[in-house]
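Query structure, 163 tokens:
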């Protein structure tokens, strides 16, 4: 039967073959181009925002370094005359200073100003003051120093003592 149908009509028996869908280049390619231009604009905007963020981060880092440098210079300038690391004691200069060993400190010396020599065991900063523990051999003594601009104890000295 199918062969007879083909001989009579010249076509195969069955449903007609489906035609492939034609691509409309007019609508789709223009839309793709618009979408890619939008994406390109979005990527450019995103890259610009990222570059601006990096520039801001670099600017803040440079400002922080400048502040720290100025702070260190200020501390160094303030410490030249009144405090800081003393040169090594070589007994080349003799002074009238009286040094007290830590083990000789007694309540009798409570209101006097005394000079002691030892190494810093601990220091603890508290507000505008600092507590220190000096050690010499087996003996320790606790000292305290508070900021007082009238008596020549600037905040830089407190920071130096606190370490």
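Result returned for the query:
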């Amino acid at each position: 039967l199918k062969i007879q149908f083909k001989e009579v009509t010249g076509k195969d028996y069955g449903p007609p073959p489906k035609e492939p869908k034609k691509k409309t280049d007019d609508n789709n390619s223009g839309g793709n181009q618009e979408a890619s231009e939008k994406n390109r604009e979005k990527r450019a905007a995103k890259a610009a925002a990222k570059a601006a963020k990096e520039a801001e981060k670099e600017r803040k880092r440079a400002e922080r370094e400048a502040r720290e440098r100025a702070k260190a210079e200020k501390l160094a300038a303030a410490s030249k005359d009144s405090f800081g690391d003393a040169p090594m004691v070589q007994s080349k200069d003799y002074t009238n200073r009286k040094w007290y060993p830590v083990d000789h400190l007694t309540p009798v010396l409570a209101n006097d100003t005394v000079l002691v020599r030892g190494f810093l065991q601990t220091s603890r900063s508290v507000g505008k003051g600092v507590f220190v523990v000096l050690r010499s051999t087996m003996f320790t003594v606790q000292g305290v120093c508070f900021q007082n601009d009238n008596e020549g104890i600037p905040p830089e000295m407190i920071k130096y003592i606190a370490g």
